[in-house]
Amino acid sequence: MAQKEDNLKDIISHAKEYGFVFPSSEIYDGLSATYDYGQLGSELKNNIKQYWWKSMVQMHENIVGIDAAIFMHPSVWKASGHVDAFNDPLIDNKDSKKRYRADVLIEDHIEKYRAKINKDVAKGLKRFGDDFNKEEFLKTNPNVLRNQAKIDEIEARMKETLTNEDLEGVYNLIMDLGIACPVSGSKNWTEVRQFNLMFSTELGSVSGESAKIYLRPETAQGIFVNFLNVQKSGRMKIPFGIAQIGKAFRNEIVARQFIFRMREFEQMEMQFFVRPGEEMKWYEYWKDQRINWHKKIGLGEENYRFHDHVKLAHYANAAADIEFNFPMGFKELEGIHSRTDFDLKQHQEHSGKKLQYFDPEINENYVPYVVETSIGLDRMFLAVLSSSYKTEQLENGSERSVLSLPAALAPYKVAVMPLTRKDGLPEKAREILASLKFDFNCQYDEKDSPGKRYRRQDAIGTPYCVMVDHQTLEDNTVTIRDRDTMLQERVSIQELNALIGEKVSMKNLLM
Ligand code: GAP
What is the pLDDT of residues 357-403, one digit of tens each? Predict the structure, then answer.
């Protein structure tokens, strides 16, 4: 784990050095847990958004996208349950003065038992090789069974206490498990308290309760309140989805681990409206669709796992996370939730407006059920960045830092370089750049030796470098270098566009 955390430090400094992510307001010493995306970060982020939007909205006939306002009528948050129930249980350590989410302390404790099971599995695999039967081992090995029983027991107590809002019970669980503060090592805890995560502000110049509005803590509510607008204006037929990408804000108790948990972040959410009673079928469908979306990016299938929620949110009847193997270990990347008809019914009640759908196939009016997929864009960014970052030893003894980003997501697709700054090579290189830039985000680089320039492009994840040399002037060919293999191939300038286009196309991820 220590090595993985060092790896996170390296990623943070690489992200800053090359213009991906900067601490926000850095010249004023920064603002805790807020970050700015730099010139390359915003390109990468836009490409991730595009990949999500293309696959979720444009490639589904029955899904459309909207862009709702961040500010919403205060009644929205009363109706959605966020004013009363969007709380995290917090606990302070009296010695370190550090504040924690009580449920996260318990989950981290559970993770230790999971790590023990994984270690036993790894040992078994090493000992028995291909003959190792993991499923059988998990069912019969006494150590595994003991650790699994411990996990089940803790999860059951956690679920019961959190569901019943039994804060004393949560405190007792932490004490019974002997959980110590990771900073001070002490078990000198305060009681557990509930903390509402919504940021509020005042509308206009009038202050007071009536003017209090909230920064949205999820984008989903902008979709729910527009359900009928979209359904009617788009003549949508159930089942159909509404998608949205946008900012969300939460006053997180512990915001840390770089862009993993921030107070201002971006979500990519889709609400899928279905016939009541069919929600579990669609819940399974979307779990399947979403995990496939992730696997197609090529960050390694072993880096994903599902985790069923122990405590369901106030609106859900089933929920699972897709967890990713971040530098800090497996953590939530995306949630898939079966939200029942909770939200639409609540808005119907609080607004007094009917939010129903007439289903011509069964000749019935009903409030649809909803299955949602919700992914944090910043977490997706971190997943892509962290799993692409590598330092490699080269044959000549030197080292290179490389971001092996999926080509379709890379900020620059191609760098065009003249071998030298004379003999008309820069002019020729600029000519090539001019023809490529309609289709690809390109960079021109003529400074330093070719080796140094290649290293710079490797470090920012540019999949292809085109070198213009003296032969180019004779026969209109260039070399094209592949970031990952570092191999160079000579091709004619005429072929370049099609060649690069095929390799960096988002189609490769979408098919
Ligand atoms: N509408 C449902 C919803 O908001 P959630 O599990 O609370 O569900 C969905 O959030 C996703 O948003 C998470 O899986 C995570 O990727 C992202 N997310 C949540 N809180 C975040 C934070 N503080 N910083 C960055 N991303 C966050």
Answer: 999 999 999 999 999 999 999 999 999 999 999 999 988 888 999 99
- Predicted confidence at residue 293, as pLDDT, reads 97
CB-ligand 1 contact for 154 (6 Å cutoff) = no
Q: Which atom of ligand 1 is nearest to the CA of 379?
A: 16
**Has residue 452 got a pLDDT over 80?**
yes
pLDDT digit string (tens) for 249-259? 999 987 779 99
Pocket test for ligand 1, best of 340, 379, 380, 382 (most atoms within 8 A of CB): 379
Report d(CA 72, CA 266) in Å as an integer: 17
Q: Are residues 379 and 441 in the same domain?
A: no
Q: Is the CB of 222 under 6 A from ligand 1?
A: no
Q: pLDDT digits over 88-97, tens only?
A: 999 999 999 9
Give yes or no for residue 379 CB within 6 A of ligand 1. yes
Domain boundary among 146, 175, 196: 196
CATH of the domain at 489: 3.40.50.800
Give the Cα separation of 430 and 206 in Å (integer): 57
Confirm whether 123 is domain-assigned: yes
Say yes or no to pLDDT of 1 above 70: no
* 142 in the same domain as 48: no
- Kindly state if the Cβ of 469 falls inside 6 Å of ligand 1: no
Asked whether 135 and 144 are in contact (CB, 8 A), the reply is: no
For residues 259 and 387, state if they share a domain.
yes
Task: Name the residue range of residue 383's domain.
Answer: 1-75+197-393
Residue 313 has which token pair? 């949110």
Between CA 169 and CA 158 the distance in angstroms is: 8
Count of structural domains within the chain? 3
Quick one: pLDDT at residue 310? 77
- What stretch of H or E contains 369? strand 369-376
- Asked whether residue 29 is domain-assigned, the answer is yes
CA pair distance 41, 380, nearest whole angstrom:
12
298/375 same-domain check: yes
Question: Residue 159 pLDDT > 60, yes or no?
Answer: yes
**DSSP labels for 15-56?**
HHHTTSEEETTGGGT--TT-EEE-HHHHHHHHHHHHHHHIII
Query: Is residue 80, in this structure, part of any structural domain at all?
Result: no
In the listed set 361, 393, 425, which residue is the last one of a domain according to the structure? Answer: 393
pTM of the model: 0.89
The residue whose CA has the least distance to atom 24 of ligand 1 is 261
Q: What residue owns the CA closest to ligand 1's atom 17?
A: 376
